[in-house]
Amino acid sequence: MADIDIRQVAKRFGSHQALHAVDLTVADGEFVVLLGASGSGKTTLLRIIAGLETASEGTVSIGGRRVDDLPPRRRGIAMVFQNYAVFPHMTVFDNIGFGLAMQKMPAAEIERKVRRVAGMLHIEELLKRYSGQLSGGQRQRVAVARALAVEPAVLLMDEPLSNLDALLRLEMRAELKGVLQESRTTTIYVTHDQVEAMSLADRIAVMHEGRIVQAAPAPEVYHHPATRFVGGFIGNPPMNFLPASREGEGARVAGHLFRDAPASGGALAFGIRPEDLAPAGEGFAGRVKVVEPLGPHQLVTMDLAGHLFRAVLDNDLAVRPGETLVLAPRPGRARWFDADSGASLAEITQPEPVTGA
Amino acid sequence: MQRLLSSQKVLPYLLILPASLFLAAFFFVPFVQVVLEAFTSDEGFTLAHFRTMADDWKFMPALSNTLGLALVVVPIQITLALVMASLVTRLRRGRDVVLYVFTIPLGISDLAAGLIWFALLEQNGFLNSILYGLGVIPGPQNLLDYRNTAGLFVAVVVAEVWRATAIVLVILVAGLGLIPKEYDEAAEVFGAGPLKRFFLITLPLLRPSLQTALILRTILAFEVFAVVAVLAGNNLPVLMGETYSWQFDLQDHKVASAYAIVILAISLAFTVFFLWALHDRTREAAA
Questions:
Q1: A89–B192: do the CB atoms touch at under 8 Å?
Q2: For residue B128, what pLDDT is reported?
Q3: CA-to-CA distance for B166 and B107, rounded, in angstroms?
Q4: Best residue in B184, B189, B282 to probe A by mutation, most A CBs within 10 Å?
Q5: Superfamily covering domain B58-277
Q6: For A93-145, what is each residue's pLDDT tens digit?
Q7: Is the same domain home to A164 and A262?
Q8: Which residues are CB-neighbours of B219 under 8 A, at least 6 positions away?
Q9: What is the mean predicted confidence (pLDDT) over A192-218?
């Protein structure tokens, strides 16, 4: 077990800057998810922590020890690869025991540890098989078991669920969470799937164009996006954004006047999550374009002063395309951003307590 | 015709028909002829030609020299090619240039390769000139002395290694390129140093390419001829040389055919052995 301290880590591939001076600290036993689209630099950062890639600048410390000049095998890490990298010419047993065998552990000890992690991941009956005889989900379990078997100080996972089909991914996600909670290993987990990130992470670090734009617990990232990018990236459907014009102390958004808007900064942009809207007598009035029933809710897309505007509403509300609908933000849920920089500004009403921080 | 062409059952056979006809005309027919030549005389089936072949005093030396050359040359080539392939794939820059330089001998025919090494090793050759110029030797040495069979053997081994290692290299470089780099990275993360990674991960995963290279090189090693003819003449008899000799010098194509059958049998035996020994057993149903 160990904490991780990443300071000012930058990475250039030729003229391409993959990472810009990234800072991140991960506490002992914490589960941090690096979340971002492809090309955001999340995998590069993970590979630098693993030692499979060298940083152009900056330092990485694991357990208080600088590891920049250490090869991967001396960093006390274990890794689960996106394609699992389960050695095809070895049995499942030899795969799981590979790291232990490299440490020259006695055979009886290896046997005991392999059986323990195989039990944790329910693959005891597969120990004699080869990778070619396993399904994708089973191979995934072997890769996780191999990583846990060495009882690493830090566990690194690179999109471990992305090659599984949807149903299996859901199942493995829950199981992974249970197994990792039990082991309390410091974990950094890379994914582009926000649902995966929310469900697993103690803390999500959202990456965009080689920078960490926000690192916070999932509810905070969701309710208080640090930038307009985070608001648009997290949440499905994404946050609605509308241009705002200042009027005295307040601001007018699509015809609706908010009495007090953040005083600081220049031009404003308004943001509201589709699920934070409710029908009201006064508010945003728009023409309904599409109604999509989603089971427990319905997704309503409307045209609001030339902008597409989405709302997730209760099923019992009868809405038909072509009608005019008036919606207002739930109290405390409106968000304001600097229209130029995209940075978040203070909330219009009293801020809610930040949960889970 | 249209229906015949579009039929999924017939079309594949139609497509391989030209190649099959070509093989039948230029490979299978001569092959049958050679077999008939080797096993028949005017009175019908006979093993007399094989007896003639085996009774010749050069047969045993030819057989042992050929096997000996293959057993020495092929392992050296595989080892060298593995080292070279590992070096080439590790290069970040100039990889293609190095690979082209390494494979230059591939573009040279075996006869020309034999002549090059003859020019190097003969009494008035480059090696003698250099050694004499450096004062290492008092005068020209006969490195290819017909009385020194071991020396001739070594000369042929060196020339063959120089000439044909590149084909193994090309196969292994291609094979290394097919191994996903994550296997090596996983081994590195889980504690394996460079040597362990090579022997525990890379080498086993390279097995299909090694199998191809071994079969190809071993078969070609049993057909060694021109290099031996140039460097050692008749002083180092090999099977292919004897086949040539019976066919053209002694004008006995029956015994020459018998030699050809022996070479075929040895090649076939080794091919079957390599296919069996390096067979992928990891995909068979679990016990």
A1: no
A2: 83
A3: 10
A4: B189
A5: MetI-like (1.10.3720.10)
A6: 999 999 999 999 999 999 999 999 999 888 999 999 999 899 988 999 999 99
A7: no
A8: B267, B270, B271
A9: 93
Q: Do A89 and B207 touch (CB under 8 A)?
A: yes
**Does A14 touch chain B if contact means CB atoms closer than 8 Å?**
no
> What local confidence, expressed as pLDDT, does residue B283 receive?
64
Q: How many domains does chain A have?
A: 2
- Give B178's contacts in chain A (Cβ within 8 Å): none
Contacting residues of A for B185, CB less than 8 Å apart: 52, 72, 79, 81, 85
Q: How confident is the model at residue B284 (pLDDT cuts 50, 70, 90)?
A: low
Dihedral sign for Cα B272, B273, B278, B284, please: positive
Tell me the average pLDDT across B31-60: 89
Q: Is the pLDDT of residue A27 over 50?
A: yes
When pLDDT is cut at 50, 70 and 90, the band that residue A270 belongs to is very high
- Restricting to A residues 102-141, those with a Cβ less than 8 Å away from any Cβ of B are 102-103, 128-133
Q: Is residue A97 in some structural domain?
A: yes
- Beta strands A31-35 and A203-208, pairing class: parallel
A130:B283 CB<8 A:
yes
Residues A147 and A265 in one domain: no
Does the ipTM exceed 0.85?
Answer: no
Handedness of CA B37, B42, B46, B50 (dihedral sign): negative
Mean pLDDT (whole number) for A196-225: 93
For residue A170, the domain's CATH number is 3.40.50.300
> Is the CB of A267 inside 8 Å of chain B's CB atoms?
no
Calculate how close chain A gets to B189, using CA atoms only, in Å: 5
Q: Which of B188, B191, B201 sits opposite A103 (nearest CB)?
A: B191
Residue A352 has pLDDT above 80, yes or no: no
Least Cα distance to B184 among A71, A149, A44, A66 occurs for: A71
Res A354 pLDDT > 50: no
Domain that holds residue A71: 4-226
Residue A351 counted as domain residue: no
**One-letter identity of residue A6:** I
Residues A86 and A185 in one domain: yes
A159 lies in the same domain as A247 = no
Q: Which residue in chain B is spatially nearest to A98 when comparing CA positions?
A: B190
